[in-house]
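Handout, section B. The chain below has 106 residues.
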Amino acid sequence: MGKYVFLEKWERNRSLILEFRDSMEEQLDTTCGWEKKAFPDSDITCAQYLAALKELLRLEYSDIRKKRLIEDIKEEEYPQHIQNLDAQYEKIKKQKEFLICKVKNC
């Protein structure tokens, strides 16, 4: 059972990141906001943050990575991995809401 919940949450996170990446690229192209600071307490630009999102997708959310995780995670480890996915989801969701609004100048 843990494996199936893990896979659902892993796919949910990947979908959120893909949607975030696409929305952010579209908004940055529209507003020319590539060099704006992504967050008030950081020197990271929106372009750099978008590059980090793409890297996260490439490293953590590829089909090869998914297959390896399923092979490597022991049944008793699934609850911790699921918690990590939930925490990552909430963090990325908040960052998405903040940055998309910022780029749109809400």
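Note. Residues 2-104 form one domain. Compare this with the example in section A.
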